[in-house]
Amino acid sequence: MAEHRVTFNDAEPAVVVPTGTLVVEAARLAGIDMAQPCGGQGRCGRCAVHVTSGQVRRRSTLRLSAADLEVGYALACQAVVEADATIEVLPQEQLERHLTSDLVAATVEVPAGYDLGRQSLRRIPLTLSPPSMDDQTDDYSRLQTTLFPEIGCDVDVSLPLLRRLGAVLRAGGWQVTALVDEGAGPDARPRLIDIVPGHVPAKAPLWGAAVDIGTTTVTVWLVDLVSGEVGAQTAEYNRQVRRGEDVISRIVYASKNSGGAELQELVLTSINTLLQRTAQRVGIEPAEILKVTVAGNSTMMHLLLGIPADSIRLQPFITAVNDVPPFPARELGIAVHPEATVDCLPGVASYVGADISAGVLSSGMDDSEKVSLFLDIGTNGETALGSSEWLVTCACSAGPAFEGAGVLFGMRATRGAIEEVWINGKTYEPTYRVIGDAPPQGFCGSALISLLGELFLTGLIDKGGHFNRSLPTDRVRNGEHGLEYVVAWGADTSHGRDIVITTVDIDNLLRAKAAIYAGFTVLAVSVGFPLEEVEQILVGGAFGKYINVEKAIEIGL
């Protein structure tokens, strides 16, 4: 097969690739990571490149005009190399911000009647009888015999722990502390997580991590399982976002070549980065984290575990697994204690995953006599309706607009994010509140709802999201993406650029709002339950924490 030299951005050295190589793959070999928000399907047009010399074969020209083609533009995910070429890669969107929280030393809101001691991880001090010429029991059997009265059965011990066992027992003078995960359910088999010399104080922290894998954002909470204290919480964009902004795009990307392995590596990098950061903030090493609980929608869970997710998007839309058995962290490469139990919370179906299960349980709606509507508003809008007597769920693709992605100045609810906006109905001048009292950088989801409501109430936009150009204000203007409204002038922002909301942003928000509304409306109709009889509405996740309910009602959400 013939080979060709491809030079990107006039940089040397060129990469040499065989005929038929996708431009996006050649760019990756050259060290250029290109975003593919549609998962490489050629639908979004955001991986456009400029072929300045040589030629490529365009398998699709969707999103490219005749003028674009005439001057040499191509979609990197749809163009293949067939000759030597020089290619200019356009500036890429930067979605991967570090989204750290200032939360330290908070306390978990433990539900009434819940016993923290019910969690399965136990620290057990042991005093073993030392071996002698009269007692030549092996170290492993000696440990099992001493543990049996505490556990009631033998404990599984991994080969790496078995290799260390003798040295630890002797270093502790036959006084040691065993860390055992007893598992959940009557058939669970206890497993030795670690064994350390000496007797560790009973009140010493046992660190566990809660990981929420959102389609757009990954969040990690570090919790002391003894006291219930939250040590730290951090978040950042899910690094898979550059390979698809929604679950379908990622499933498609995962099915191509080594796409599944790449997506698994990207989300593991996100998780491990956050685990390292949270551990540093409480002054421990990640290896001191002894349990990990993971929530996420069904697709995110499959991609994390390296399980093919194709069947989720194909009729009859069946997952490979809803309830994943627990496994040690070393099997997946999560950077905590290698023997730490990783417990993936159970999902329900292909588009109703462990995130909605966790929300229903933590809100208590399954124990309430009130009929509740639970909304998890994110890239996937998942809904649960019901009470202690019955529950029904559904999901819809809302898109990432309310997570800050897909909006020109969108960001998560962290320092520098505008979280609320008010507009004067006479002067059309805005005022806003910024998280952390810092110069503004952009809008978080709550600000976008607030701003949309204010624009509509003041007549700056109509109910279709179209700007009114006849009003006496210079804040409505033509921009690169059409008409836009300036919320903050560049002189007041942290980056020196005007912060605006564009017509395209508003369209994205209206589509997301419509999808969420349609989801829970269709759900209620399907079970014959009038929405006006719902007694309470619960909004989950970080979005629910900051949402302005009044403004959400104003925009019809």
If you average the pLDDT, what whole number results? 89
Radius of gyration over all CA atoms, rounded: 27 Å
Largest sheet, in brief, is:
7 strands, mixed
Q: Which regions have little confidence, pLDDT < 50, spanning 5+ residues?
A: 93-102, 104-108
The neighbouring-strand order within the major sheet is: 6-12-11-10-13-15-14
Q: Give the strand content.
A: 25-35%
Distance between the termini: 56 Å
- Kindly name the structural category: alpha+beta
DSSP summary: helix tally:
13
Number of strands: 25
What is the molecular shape? globular
In helices, the fraction of residues equals 25-40%
Task: Please give a quick description of this structure.
It is built from 13 helices and 25 strands. With 557 residues, it is an alpha+beta fold. The protein is globular, with a radius of gyration of 27 Å.
List keywords for this structure.
557 residues, 28% strand, five-stranded mixed β-sheet, seven-stranded mixed β-sheet, alpha+beta, single chain, 13 helices, 25% helix
